[in-house]
Write a structure and sequence with these properties.
elongated; DUF7129; binds zinc ion; Rubrerythrin-like domain-containing protein; 3 strands; three-stranded antiparallel sheet
Length: about 50
């Protein structure tokens, strides 16, 4: 049980934002539709080297 190393931008996860309502969600898989409004989403994750 350790917390303090929680990084919301882990490289295996991507951040998606709904183009319609701007709801954001983090998923390891491609998200094709917003869970809130069903709108299209885009991947807004920033690649970090
Ligand atoms: Zn939406």
């Amino acid at each position: 049980m350790s917390h303090g190393l929680v990084d919301p931008y882990r490289p295996e996860e991507s951040v998606f934002e709904c183009l319609e309502c701007h709801h954001r969600l983090v998923s390891e898989e491609h998200v094709g539709a917003c869970p809130v409004c069903g709108g299209a989403t885009k991947n807004i994750a920033v690649a970090r080297e």
